[in-house]
What we know:
Bound molecules: alpha-L-arabinofuranose
Number of strands: 29
Structural class: alpha/beta
Amino acid sequence: MRSATRRWKAVVTACLAPVLALMASPAPLTAQEATGTIRADTPGPVYSRRIFTQFAEHLGYGIYGGLYVGEDSPIPNVNGFRSDVIGALRELRVPVLRWPGGCFADEYNWREGIGPKADRPVKINTHWGGVEEPNAVGTHEFFELARQLGAEAFISGNVGNGTPRESAEWVEYITSPAGSLAQMRAENGREEPWTLEFFGIGNELWGCGGNMRAEYAADVTRRFSTFIKAPAGTKITKIAAGANSGDTEWTRVFMDVARDHIDGLSLHYYSIAGGWPPSISATDFAEEGWAHQLSATWQMDRLLAEHTAVMDEYDPEKRVFLAVDEWGAWYAPDPGTNPGFLQQGNTLRDAVLAGINLNIFARYADRVRLTAIAQMVNVLQAMVITDGPQMVRTPTFHVFAMYVPFQDGTVLPLDLNTPDYTFGPYTMPAVSAAAVRGTDGHVYVALTNGDPNRAIPVSLSLAGVTAHSVSGQVLTGDAVNARNSFADPDAVAPAPFGGARLAEGRLEVTMPAKSVVMLKLD
Ligand code: AHR
C-alpha cells in the first residue's frame, strides 16, 4: 500500500521494459482495497474552472479544417467555425482558450492576421510541417471563436522574435477604447474593445521561444511585462513562460527575479513514455504500453510538488499561480500522417491519463489555478478528431465532460491509501481520487483505476457529508486501446454506474478495471 500524498517515485527502466514485461507476475485473484477519507469538514481551495482551459495552436488541422473551414464551406459553420465541433466543445464548458501557440506564437506577427483576408500574407509555418499559413484566422476570428465557445481569451504573445512594442500594440489593438489602433480595429469590423483576460509573455523561452537562459528570460519577461498595459479599470493577467518539466531552477530564477511583474508562471509537462522524441504508438499497444505511459503521467505529481515547493519559498501567499498550460499525452505521429501535424489516435489509456492528471491538480489547487491540455482539436491529446465533414468525440473528451461539475467546486481534501499497480518495471498508484463540493452544493467524487486487469474496491469515509444516495457515470472499454472511430463513435462513452453505494457514513465503490468514474452524492 502507498499513500498517494507521499512523494511518488516511478521506476522507469525504458530499455529493460519489454524483457521485464514478459516476466511480469500474474495478477492476484483478490484485489486489495483502497481506503481514505473525504474531508468535507475542512474544505480546501477552489478547483478553478480554468484548470479545464483548452489550447488551440496553428498546427496541423488544429485550426484549419478542425475548427475553421471558412464561411463558404459546405461543412455547416457559423462565421467559418464548424458547427459540429463548436457544439461538441460547448458541452465541455471551455472556460479559457489559449491561442495562437505554442511554438507558432513565438514567431507570430499579429498584424498579418487582421484586415481583409485577401490582403493577408501567406506565410510558412516553420515549426509545424512547413505548410502554408494563410492567416485566415487572426485576432478577430480568435475572438469570434472564443465568443462561440463562451471562453475567456488567453493570447500567447511573441517574445521569441517579436518586440515589446509589437506585444504592447497587439494588446492595445484588442483592448483600447480609443486611439488609432482602436480605430483600425473598428475599420476591421469591431468597434467595441474585447476583454483580454490572459496574456502569455512568450512560450517556452528555453526552447522554440528563443533558446534563452533562465536569467536572461526572466529579465526579458520583466521588460515585456512593463509594456503590457490594460485600459483603466481593467486587468490583464500576465503569465510568464515557465519551466520545461523538471527544471525547477527555471522556476526558482523566475520567482526570484520576475515574480513582481507576473501573475502566473507556466509549466509544460507532456507524458512521453520513453522520453523525447515520442516513440510509442498512440493506438497500437498492449499492457506494457499502457503501464509505461501511465507511469510517465504520474510524474506530474512529483513535478507539481517540486515546482510548488520552490514557489512557496518566494511567494508563501500564493499570489503567483502555477499555470500548467501544456500537458497531456504525446506519442509517435499516427502512421501516414505528416509528422509535423502531431496527429495521434486517442484511446481509453488517454482517458485514464486525463483523469489521473485532473485528480492530481486537485491536490495543488491552491497554487495550480489554470492548466491547458494540449490540444483541443486534431492535435496531440485532442477532445475531438475530424476528417473532412466527419467528427468524433475522443475518450478524453468524455472525461472532460464528466468533470464539468468540478469547475469552480471547492476541493474536499482526500487522503487515499491505494494498492499499487505494477507491470514489469512500472509501479504506480492503482487508484487516484479527488472530491469537490460543486457550485450546486453536491459532493462530486472522481476516481480512476489504472489497473487494467483488476476491479478495485474503494472505501471512503465521509467527514462532514450528509448524503442519502449516490449516482454516477463510468468510462471504460473492452481493451486498453479501445477508442472511438467515425464508424463506431460511441465505443468508449460514459455509461450509468451502479457500482457505488453509501453505507454507515462511508462511500463504497467497486472501481472497474481501467476506468474513470464520476460520482454525485445527494
Ligand atoms: O503542443 C505542441 C508544442 O509543444 C507547442 O507548440 C510547444 O509549446 C510545445 O513544445
